[in-house]
Amino acid sequence: MFKINDKTQWDDGSGQVIDELKARFGDHPVHFQRDDLARVQIPQKDLLPVLSWLRGDTPFVQLTHMTAIDWMEEGEFELVYLVTAPTLLTSLMICIRVDREKAQAETVFNLWLHAETYEQEINEMFGIDFPGSPRQGVPFILEAWKDIPPMRRDFDTVEYCARTHPERPGREHQDTRKYVGRKFGEKGFLK
Amino acid sequence: MSIFDYSSHEGFDVMHDGGVDRTRAIPNAGTEVDSREVQLWFGPQHPGITGNMSVQVWLKGDTIQRGITHVGYLHRGFEKLMERRKFIQSFPIVCRMCVAETDTTEYLLASSLEELSGLDQDVPEKAKWIRTLVMEMSRLQVMLMVLGGQVGTMGLGTAPNWTYTLRDFLLDSFEELTGGRVYHMYITYGGVRRDLPLGFGQRLEKTLEVIEERLPYLDDLILNSAVFQKRAKGVGVVPSEWADELGITGPPLRAMGVASDIRRDYPYLKYPELDFKVITAEGSDIYARTEVRRHEISESISIIRQCLQMMPHEGKFCAKLPNMMTWTIPAGMTYTRAESSRGEMGFMMVTDGSDKIRRVHLRGPSYTNAITVLERMLPGTNIADLSALMVSLQTCPPEIER
Q: A166 to chain B, minimum CA–CA distance in Å?
C-alpha cells in the first residue's frame, strides 16, 4: 500500500548496504522516507538471515526499536525492526508480514538482548509468538488478562470497559445536553 | 455483591497468590533454593523508586543476587486510545507518556504527522525556534530534577531541595508560556499554540541567571562531595560492549565516552544552527553519568540563550492548518526521533489515509534502561545502591508502559 520511491539522497555507505542487501536477498521493495531513514519489505523467511547479516557484517549494529502493526483487513500483522548504523547515521526499517491466523515469528533475542522486552510486549499486546524468546507468556503490563490481545484491531475497547467496569448501582446516567437543558433551560446552551 | 469485593474478581488468584510465574523471566530464578536468600520487593510504594514500578530482588546479606523489573502499575493504553481519536485529540494523551518531560513527545507527535502529511514544509521559522527553545527548557528542568534526585538517593538532602526549587522557577516560565506547569500541550501541528508573551525572554533570562549562579554551589554539593564520590565512583558501571547489544543512548552512552547525541547526529528543528558541545565523560559509572548531566545543564542554558537571541521577533508561530475535524493524512510510515534528557526518544507512526492514527509506538530510553540494562546490572550490587543506580539510568515507568 506504500509508494515505492527511487533511491535518492543516500550517501554511499548506506546506499551500498541497500544494494548489497538486494543482491544477497532479492530485489525487495525499498522506500526512502528521509535522508536518514529507509524501509525494506522482506519475506518472513528472510528475517533472521537479513538481520544477522546487518548485525554482523554491516554498520547497522543497533536495534533501535521494534513494533507490530495489525493489518486486520488484510489478515496480516506487520513486524517492524528499526536498525541503526551509528557510524553512518542512518536507519533501516526492516518489515515483514506475518499471517494473522498463525501469528508467529523468529526471535531476534540472540542478536540483540533487549529484543526480549519488545517481543514480550508484542506477544502480550498482539498475541504474536516468538518461540525461543525468554519472556514469552510472562506478563509484562497486563495481569490475569483473559480477553483477546488488546492491541489487536478487533479488540473492542468500549465494550471491554462497559463489561469490566460496570457503573455504580443506583447511579443515574446523565446525558450532558439533557442535563444542562433540564437544569438551566434552553438558555444553558450557547447559540 | 459489593463492588469492592475483590475476592470475587476472577483474576484475584492469579494476581495475588503468584499463580503467574513471573520468575520464569530470569534465568535460574526460583529453581535454586537457598535458605540464606531473602526476597524483597523494592517498590512500588517506596521513596527510592523512580515512579510507579517495582524491582523484585533476591538478596544474600546486602548483596543483590538477581532481580527483575515489574511494570504495569501505570498502563493507560495511550497507543490504543490514539487509534480511536482524531489527530488533534492526541495531544492531551502524548504529553502524559512521560510525565516529567512532556514537550518531547508533543514534538514527536507533531513532527511525525507533519512529515507524513507534508505539513512540515509549512512550519514557520519562528515556530521552529520556539519549539527548540521549549524542548531545551524541558530538558533543562528534567536534568535539574535528576541531578538533585541522584544525590538525594544517597541521603544528601540539600542539593535536591535546591535543584527542585530551580526547576520550579522554570515551571513558572512554562506556566506563563503555555498555561500549564507540567502538561503543556503547547507544540501543535504546524507550529506552536501561541506566541511568546511580551518580555518572556527577559524573565527567562533572569531565571537562567539564578540557575547559573547556583551551579558552582551544586558542584560543591554533588560532584566535589566526598560522600557522593565514594558512593558513585566505580559503582553501577555499564560495560561499553552493551551499547550496541542493549541499545543504550543518552547520558549513559555519553558517560562511556561516546559522543552520541540525536541533536547533532540527526539534526532537527534549529539545532544545526546552534553552537553546543556534546558532553562526554569517562568511567561509565554513576559519577560519570551525573557529570554528563551537570555539564549538559550548562550547555542547555547556553542553547536557550542562543534561541532567545537568534529567534526572529516577527512572523507567524503556526502554519495555516486544515480543519482538524476532517483532516486526513495519506498512508505512510515513519520514525521520528529527538534527544530527551534520558536519551533517544522516538515515535513509530503509521497512517492509513483516514482521519485517525493507524498505529503509534513510543521508543523510550527507559524501555531498555529500566529493564534489560538494570536487570543485568543488579547481580552483585549492594541494596543501598539500587536507588542511585535507577536514578542514574533515569528509569521512567510512564514511558515504558504508556
A: 9
